[in-house]
UniProtKB/TrEMBL annotation, chains A, B, C, D:
Residues at the active site: 140
Subcellular location: Cytoplasm
Record protein name field: Glyceraldehyde-3-phosphate dehydrogenase
Residues that coordinate or bind D-glyceraldehyde 3-phosphate: 139-141, 194-195
Listed NCBIfam families: GAPDH-II_archae, PRK04207.1
Record's keyword annotation contains Cell membrane: no
Organism, scientific name: Halorussus gelatinilyticus
Pfam families: DapB_N, Gp_dh_C
Key words, A-Z: Cytoplasm, Glycolysis, NAD, NADP, Oxidoreductase
Catalytic activity: D-glyceraldehyde 3-phosphate + phosphate + NAD(+) = (2R)-3-phospho-glyceroyl phosphate + NADH + H(+); D-glyceraldehyde 3-phosphate + phosphate + NADP(+) = (2R)-3-phospho-glyceroyl phosphate + NADPH + H(+)
Binding site for NAD(+): 11-12, 110, 168, 301
Amino acid sequence: MLRVGVNGYGTIGKRVADAVRAQPDMEVVGVAKTRPNFEAEQAVEKGFPLYAAIEDRVEQFDEADIELAGMVEELVAQSDVVVDACPSGIGEQNSELYAEYDTPALYQGGESADFVDTSFNARSNFSDANGADHVRVVSCNTTGLSRLVAPLREEYGIEKVRTTLVRRGGDPAQTGRGPINDITPNPVTLPSHHGPDVNTIFPDLDIDTLGLKVPATLMHMHSVNVTLESEPDADVVRDLLEGESRLFVIPEHFDIDGAGKLKEYAQDVGRPRGDIWENCIWGESVTMEGDDLYLFQAIHQESDVVPENVDAIRAVTNSADADESVRKTNEALGMGI
Amino acid sequence: MLRVGVNGYGTIGKRVADAVRAQPDMEVVGVAKTRPNFEAEQAVEKGFPLYAAIEDRVEQFDEADIELAGMVEELVAQSDVVVDACPSGIGEQNSELYAEYDTPALYQGGESADFVDTSFNARSNFSDANGADHVRVVSCNTTGLSRLVAPLREEYGIEKVRTTLVRRGGDPAQTGRGPINDITPNPVTLPSHHGPDVNTIFPDLDIDTLGLKVPATLMHMHSVNVTLESEPDADVVRDLLEGESRLFVIPEHFDIDGAGKLKEYAQDVGRPRGDIWENCIWGESVTMEGDDLYLFQAIHQESDVVPENVDAIRAVTNSADADESVRKTNEALGMGI
Amino acid sequence: MLRVGVNGYGTIGKRVADAVRAQPDMEVVGVAKTRPNFEAEQAVEKGFPLYAAIEDRVEQFDEADIELAGMVEELVAQSDVVVDACPSGIGEQNSELYAEYDTPALYQGGESADFVDTSFNARSNFSDANGADHVRVVSCNTTGLSRLVAPLREEYGIEKVRTTLVRRGGDPAQTGRGPINDITPNPVTLPSHHGPDVNTIFPDLDIDTLGLKVPATLMHMHSVNVTLESEPDADVVRDLLEGESRLFVIPEHFDIDGAGKLKEYAQDVGRPRGDIWENCIWGESVTMEGDDLYLFQAIHQESDVVPENVDAIRAVTNSADADESVRKTNEALGMGI
Amino acid sequence: MLRVGVNGYGTIGKRVADAVRAQPDMEVVGVAKTRPNFEAEQAVEKGFPLYAAIEDRVEQFDEADIELAGMVEELVAQSDVVVDACPSGIGEQNSELYAEYDTPALYQGGESADFVDTSFNARSNFSDANGADHVRVVSCNTTGLSRLVAPLREEYGIEKVRTTLVRRGGDPAQTGRGPINDITPNPVTLPSHHGPDVNTIFPDLDIDTLGLKVPATLMHMHSVNVTLESEPDADVVRDLLEGESRLFVIPEHFDIDGAGKLKEYAQDVGRPRGDIWENCIWGESVTMEGDDLYLFQAIHQESDVVPENVDAIRAVTNSADADESVRKTNEALGMGI
Ligand SMILES: NC(=O)c1ccc[n+]([C@@H]2O[C@H](COP(=O)([O-])OP(=O)(O)OC[C@H]3O[C@@H](n4cnc5c(N)ncnc54)[C@H](O)[C@@H]3O)[C@@H](O)[C@H]2O)c1
Ligand SMILES: NC(=O)c1ccc[n+]([C@@H]2O[C@H](COP(=O)([O-])OP(=O)(O)OC[C@H]3O[C@@H](n4cnc5c(N)ncnc54)[C@H](O)[C@@H]3O)[C@@H](O)[C@H]2O)c1
Ligand SMILES: NC(=O)c1ccc[n+]([C@@H]2O[C@H](COP(=O)([O-])OP(=O)(O)OC[C@H]3O[C@@H](n4cnc5c(N)ncnc54)[C@H](O)[C@@H]3O)[C@@H](O)[C@H]2O)c1
Ligand SMILES: NC(=O)c1ccc[n+]([C@@H]2O[C@H](COP(=O)([O-])OP(=O)(O)OC[C@H]3O[C@@H](n4cnc5c(N)ncnc54)[C@H](O)[C@@H]3O)[C@@H](O)[C@H]2O)c1
């Protein structure tokens, strides 16, 4: 059993903890948090030993009557791998702590790619993380793009990718984030940083990305163009994508017109938290114009990186190869919606 | 075992079907639907025999390869009770069908109160529905207000209720509904119809309501004023409310600032579809100024009427009294968040 | 000619500057700003001498090629009155500067009521500001409530006011403000601070307010209940309100259902920036139930305080009495939509 | 003086009427409308003779006390040109009426391109409309794309255009339109109809477009890629665009991050209704990657077609050539923000 600690029990961390617990070859030794809110209470309720991340705040947990198992250092000490899911930038600060205890660590996409040994996407470069100490699971958007690029590249070759990322302004519970009624180029300068981030997975891919923010909370939406090196029929491309375990090609008769109905569907099938770990590609949108492939895909920012974190745990500990790990993860979670 | 049919398998209907199935004394004999979308497919997937509501559309189900068990008439014929959860106004049209087969029927809050024997709220007037043929489970907002009014009235007496209902513009998957960036008095004329609807449960209650629509999808929000006939301490009122099984008084340290975090919490605790069957009352907001009680409550429009429908099934079939039914429903669903 | 300086040239400040310039008895001697954005450029374009509010930032104006007339101290020195429209809290800090130069100053509603001589609403307590050094023009919401309370109180007497303020989350250009899809009690504790703020104008008024924030940017919406000391007909109340120069009672046949159409109307009639200085009361909503008056009013947060600032300038300088000032201001601006 | 009638006095029609009136060589002989709402009242207030478009509704205008000048047929009879700005599809129905009276007519972008002599964009194909009877001024989005394509094509040659149109869900006053919290591919099938619409102006242009709808009301946003036939520096391209009279290249120091601040700026400079007739291109976003040009532009859907309608009036009446007409229109309106 791989002993996994989760540092930062928020949107990503709590999902990773549940997903790790669902694996046959892993257990959660504890989770660390800074504040005694409803998420902290739920950690305890679910039987995850709760560690305080900041000494000064221990008192606050006491006041809220939430039991602590100790300080984060103790959690790191007893973990085979730590998954760091702290807010952007904190992970890099924490890396020294993990190094001190010689505990391999995974970081999330909000961290810089510079201080880690490798960035990670299970479908694309699993083995690069074998035995690494510091691995960054790329962001929700980069994960979504990598999963799509990988099969297209293998099958047809890619001349160039051009993608507009219409990003949700904030997660559903982030009341402090806007915009309320605007569409903002973000970043304004082009191409956006998302392309270079995909290059941490596919170093030689020619990709230009443009980012925007809009007043929506459910999912990101990608308007994708890929100029291929050959000219397959759209049907054949759709079949290829349907064959990928972490791509969900939405059937036409489902009558799903956006992220709202997608999430409704995920809730109906009983997905925990209504999560959608798969890229959601509109089947009808998959189109070829000459060698230009076009499609729309929606990305559930809160959860698509979750199975990737699970796989990365196996990668850094050399406990399975890509195929075996992905199969295990998928089966344990119930991938395939 | 009570044999229950659900006619209209949408937002409300699919939840009622799941809730009925979870009861020890009930089974779902089938559900009826008009269109072969993802919800229809899920009905079949979940093992609910699927009936076509409209003859002409049978073909569409065939084309989508979704198996039908028959026509809605057959469903009604074999049901002890039918729960009608069709769009507003269709229920009244369907009532003749139910009468024809002598099958008692429940309707939802979008229907008129005029053609039914009684309107229904489990906490407030359960026994009025005993043996009735046509019963209307009141709307999400009226359910929410009734649950709150009942204990206050019993305990303190109520001089007058004044409530502003800040309503969500549409459900999360209803992409066709607005407004996008507005706050609209709705209806403009005052008081709104919500007050009279509460009077179908409490005929002699003095209540004035005002309604608005805003660009939000998660929950309704009630800004409540109740002038009581006595002047209890706010703490005591809060304790009273906490004692009600379908009221959830949000603890301060949960740090929940709106519907987004409430739904996040419901998802975290594993509620199916992230549903919140309970009224959600902010504990900190419960305040007395003289004999005026004030508080905020959020109402999950998609699910608070679900346990009420389950209770109404027992009421019309005389298979349990209020206390027993509510206890059974609560236990089967896992009420108490 | 009264020489007026405007310190803080943002949403409120730029409107006050234009409104002051439109008066026959006033001139704008300059405006002060911290950053060289499009608003700074427009100040220069419009011929308002531009002063730098912060020494360190002078360079930034140079880089953007925006000409400065000097530092804010020079502006204060040559002003008969300064209107401070800086972000909340900065006004209080600036008050020492104004005192130093013996320049009477007006502050906006975001400032505390504690450090000023009086709070101000032209309709309600104009003369309290005569000769004062520090006067606070109350916030957009408090201005809106005061204008409504004044005539009702004089005509019928008020037993109690209970109002729910459904507030816009941010102004149209504030992309950083949310929520995107939520309704948040704000503040959660009741009654909200808005009631006490109205009491700075009407000290003995019995008023309880509740506040919420929603994802809209155009206007605030008030759901108003006033328990009167008599029981006039609703028609008579509507006539009374129609007689007030800063209340606009929306005619039914205008077919205006919310803030969107209200602003459209204001743009159509040629209002500068589409501003609506008047409270907008839905005529159809004005209703009496016993001694309870109900109505909806929309408040244009960006502009309703503008004419009040103009009047306050005359009040502190004793250059007109209430009636004369209001008449002058209204005529110069074109009040009455 | 060209005598112009406007049939359909809504979002587009009322702006066209004002713009026509502002021209030295045109006058508005009347406007026609179906309903007596605030817009109808404003038409009369502004001195535009008001004609009823539908016989049966005349009574409604009487009831609202809004004076009519006659029926729409009379308006058509006395007009040299009619601008039809009725809702999509109605224009085509009206075309018979215009033919009957031999009055040349302009239609808006919501109409089909099939029944007209030519589609129109002043910058791109002015003279195609000379002497035509039925001319369609292309939609807001197509106008925006055409203005951008024209100079790039002339200067560098265009290999291919790929553009994602992130469209506003509804206009600010359209409370009935959503989505509230979603991003919807619209249309789902690719490429969208916008590309073919641009081909009505540039028949041989290779262009693929993708469309989405989001919960915003202020402006559309285009994420543009143009593969050029040469590789100019980005600076040079920006200079080229700055030289176009109906393109506004937003300076960096304006600190404008989206449509909210753009509209604020337009209001500040005193534009009627805060309209922005120009494409708004973020200067910082203009980028070359090899032969791929990228940029963001915002399009004010309510007004960018207005100057185009004015020019089209001159085109069909042969009363000026392209350069002269554009110069006149621009000067009369105050183009150049
Ligand atoms: N939310 C998303 O959409 C998303 C998607 C993919 C990747 N990410 C990345 O995942 C990371 C986490 O994001 P999130 O959305 O889960 O954030 P979050 O704010 O929801 O959760 C962060 C958690 O970390 C805790 N925390 C803060 N400081 C801490 C510290 N010093 N030590 C331990 N815990 C601490 C917070 O209490 C919180 O529970 C970021 O790098 C982010 O960029 C987020
Ligand atoms: N959604 C809410 O927030 C909410 C809350 C409380 C009560 N209600 C009430 O519940 C009722 C249903 O609302 P909903 O939101 O579930 O609607 P919905 O549109 O989500 O679902 C209605 C379902 O009925 C089906 N249907 C339509 N016509 C039918 C017919 N003739 N026969 C059988 N099925 C038919 C539709 O296919 C759909 O599946 C309405 O009265 C509504 O007012 C809704
Ligand atoms: N916006 C509203 O809806 C509204 C309504 C009524 C009252 N108010 C109140 O008006 C005041 C101003 O609000 P606003 O919305 O106009 O803010 P704003 O942010 O739009 O404008 C403030 C301006 O002050 C400038 N500024 C910042 N620090 C300064 C300093 N030290 N010296 C000089 N200028 C400085 C900023 O550059 C900006 O131009 C606040 O008290 C606010 O509470 C705002
Ligand atoms: N609003 C936009 O963003 C936009 C942008 C570019 C083009 N357009 C196009 O302009 C046209 C008009 O759109 P709009 O947004 O101005 O619509 P609108 O609904 O705002 O205005 C239409 C007007 O026509 C009137 N009308 C309806 N039926 C009529 C009839 N039979 N005869 C005369 N008048 C009638 C209505 O009362 C209304 O005043 C459509 O083709 C639309 O596609 C709209």
